[in-house]
Amino acid sequence: MENKTVMSIETVIDYIEANLDGKLDLEMVAEAVHYSKYHLHRMFTSTVGMTIHDYVQRRQLTEAAKLLVFSDRPIIEIAFICGYESQQAFSSAFKSMYKIPPAEYRDNREFYPLQLRFALHRNVANKVFTKDDICLAEKADIPAWMNLMRLVIDGYPVMNEADYLNAITKSIDEKRALVLKDDNILVGAMAFSDQSGCIGFLGINPQYRKQGIQKLFLDALMEIYLPGQEISMTTYREGDKADTGHRDILKQLGFAEKELLIEFGYPTQRFVLPPKYMEDIQE
Question: What is the DSSP string of 209-262?
C-alpha cells in the first residue's frame, strides 16, 4: 500500500478522533480533508475495511460505553456528547451494537470496545505468502498479537483484554497459536483448540485482507496441525448490525451455518467447515 494513501487515511482518522463529540458524516469528513466523497469512501473502505459511517458509529458508541461505565453522566448527556441528537436515537443505535440498552449496560459495569482507534502500517509491500510462511507463535509475538486484536476487534463481540491475554498466552504455551509475519508486521494470527477443532481467534491485518490470508491459515491448520478434523468458528448472527462482513468471509471460505449460540451474553452462530472442503484442499 502506498505511503501516500496511508498518510491520507491517517489524516482522516485524526480528524474523526478529534471530532467524536459531534455529528460526523462522510460529507463533513470529505470537506475537512479536501477529498471528494466518492474518492474518500473508496479509499477509506478499502484501507480500513469498513465505511466511514460504520467506523464513526462504532468509535462514538465505544466512547459512549466507556462513559456509561466510568462516569455518572446522565444518558441523555452521553448521547449528545457522542454525536446523537436525541436519547432515543442513541439508545436505538447502542442496543443494535451492544444488544442491551444503555441503562442496562451501565448497571453491568463491564466495558468492552466495539472499535478502537485504527492504526496503520506504512511500507506494506505486495508480498506473496504461502501456508508455509505460517508458523507457531512465540511469547515474543504477544505484544504484536494484542495490537492486531485491537485492530480487528470488530470481529469479536465481547472482549476482555486481561482474559484474552491469558488465553493467548496459554494457546502459545500449548502450541495452539499460529502467526504469519511480514518482517516486523504481524499479518495474521490464529488460536485454535486441538480437541474441538474450534478456531477461537482468526485476525488478519486489514491492510493485507485482499491477499487470501484467511485461506492460508485454514490450509495450514487442516493440513499440518489438525489434519482430518472438523473445523468450526463462531461469529455474528445473520442481520447483526455489528457485523462488518465476517459472516460473508466464513461463507466464502466454505463454512456452513450451524446452531445459534449465546457467548458471554452475546448472540452468535457457529459455522463449520464441512469435510468436502477438507477433501478439496488435499487434492
Answer: GGG-HHHHHHHHIIIIISTT--EEEEEEPTT-TT-SSHHHHHHHTT-EEEEEEE
Given pLDDT bands bounded at 50, 70 and 90, which one contains residue 6? confident
Per-residue pLDDT reduced to its tens digit, 101-159: 999 999 999 999 999 999 888 777 678 899 999 999 999 999 999 999 999 998 888 88
Cell digits for 173?
A: 504455551
DSSP per-residue codes, 145-170:
HHHHHHHTGGG-SS--HHHHHHHHHH
Report strand pairing: 135-136 vs 177-182.
antiparallel
Using only C-alpha atoms, what is the Rg of the chain? Answer: 20
Residue closest to 127 by CA, chosen among 50, 210, 44: 210
For residues 141 and 144, give the distance between their C-alpha atoms in angstroms, rounded to a whole number.
Answer: 6
Contact yes or no for 265/158 (Cβ under 8 A): yes
Q: Which amino acid is at 228?
A: G
Average predicted confidence (pLDDT) for the chain: 91
- The predicted-structure confidence for 238-267, as pLDDT tens digits, reads as follows 999 999 899 999 999 999 999 999 998 899
φ, ψ of residue 103 to 5 degrees: the values are -65, -40
Phi/psi of residue 228, nearest 5 degrees: 75, 5
Q: Is the pLDDT assigned to residue 201 strictly greater than 90?
A: yes
Burial (CB count within 10 angstroms: exposed 0-12, middle 13-18, buried 19+), residue 1: middle
CB neighbours of residue 183 within 10 Å:
8
- Report the alpha-carbon distance of residue 139 to residue 170 in Å, rounded: 10
Amino acid at 36: S
225 CB-near residues (< 8 Å, 6+ apart): 178, 192, 194
